């Protein structure tokens, strides 16, 4: 029997329902990713639909191969950072100022892993010291939503802890709820190019969500090249964990010579994946429409924290903050916390 989450995700991608019986499931156990919410169900669905889509592509013009999904492997992949070792050392994923903080009326979560975000947080609070104690004292005097707005206005990232009901009542929550799970549209008049060999993917993503998506494409057989701007900081451990199977390059797309190199790569690409907030790449001429105009038949996949509609559409965001805003963190927190 096909798990409901798999059927829903496959339908959202426009997949043919008659292919769903090709997927089999092993090690069906709910304790692997222990949570109050159906985390394993969603993880399984992600892996199943990605694998089935890859099988369908591999079998074009002939029979589609069968797919086997193993819950143990799925669970391991979804906590891959916990298994990573760099020179025998476990990775460090969060900076001291990236955490939950008490406010006058609840909790707020900040994200300060990158120097410019840490600087924005401190500026919003009128602080110069990057120590926990001064930040803790400053936030304890403010309302959570005031922290959210003040830090965002300074160019930083902070989100108030909300319940699922509070998120549903929020303007951004309502905007996201009105959108489909996956938005699909044709760019230009040319269908995606059918390539005989490996798909070539340009990876314009960073942090976790986008790089994991492109890591998945690489593990399914795509030729993936991650392109980073040399001036943007990145966490080395995180880059390593999400970089298996990929190549990487540094290109400053504002420099003519680097832009020429990128345009040459684009001319031979089948897919471009972007993971920046909506509109962030437009100034570089990298909107989906402009990319497709320069490379007809290109598939463009875009990921963002808050979606493309609503008052938060242009905001920066990370998975840890999305969980806090949408009620996931509230649903999963310990009793009394």
TrEMBL record:
Q: Source organism's superkingdom?
A: Bacteria
Query: Which Pfam families does this UniProt record tie to the protein?
Result: CoA_transf_3
GO terms, molecular function: catalytic activity
What is the protein name for this chain?
CoA transferase
According to the entry, what is the taxonomic lineage of the organism?
Bacteria, Bacillati, Actinomycetota, Actinomycetes, Kitasatosporales
């Amino acid at each position: 029997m096909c798990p409901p989450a798999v059927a829903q995700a496959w339908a959202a991608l426009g997949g043919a329902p008659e292919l769903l019986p090709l997927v089999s499931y092993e090690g069906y156990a709910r304790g692997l990713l222990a949570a109050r919410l159906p985390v394993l169900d969603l993880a399984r669905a992600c892996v199943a639909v990605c694998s089935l889509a890859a099988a369908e592509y591999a079998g074009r013009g002939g029979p589609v191969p069968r797919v086997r999904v193993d819950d143990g492997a799925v669970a391991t992949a979804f906590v891959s950072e916990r298994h990573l070792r760099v020179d025998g050392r476990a990775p460090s994923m969060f900076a001291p100022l990236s955490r939950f903080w008490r406010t006058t009326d609840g909790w707020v979560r900040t994200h300060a892993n990158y120097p410019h975000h840490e600087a924005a947080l401190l500026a919003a609070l009128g602080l110069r010291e990057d120590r926990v104690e001064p930040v803790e004292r400053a936030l304890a005097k403010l309302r959570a939503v005031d922290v959210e707005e003040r830090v965002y206005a300074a160019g930083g990232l902070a989100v108030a802890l909300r319940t699922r009901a509070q998120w549903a009542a929020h303007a951004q929550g309502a905007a996201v709820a009105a959108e489909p799970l996956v938005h699909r549209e044709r760019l230009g008049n040319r269908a995606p190019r059918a390539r005989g060999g490996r798909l070539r993917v340009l990876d314009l993503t960073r942090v976790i969500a986008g790089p994991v998506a492109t890591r998945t494409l690489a593990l399914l057989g795509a030729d993936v090249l991650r392109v980073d701007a040399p001036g943007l900081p990145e966490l080395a451990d995180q880059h390593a964990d999400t970089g298996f199977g990929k190549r990487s390059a540094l290109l400053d797309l504002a420099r003519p010579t680097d832009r020429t190199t990128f345009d040459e790569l684009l001319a031979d690409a089948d897919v471009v994946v972007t993971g920046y907030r909506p509109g962030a790449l437009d100034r570089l001429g990298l909107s989906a429409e402009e990319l497709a105009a320069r490379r007809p038949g290109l598939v463009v996949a875009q990921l963002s924290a808050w979606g493309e509609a609503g008052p938060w559409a242009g905001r920066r965001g990370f998975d840890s903050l999305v969980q806090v805003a949408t009620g996931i963190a509230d649903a999963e927190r310990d009793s009394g916390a």
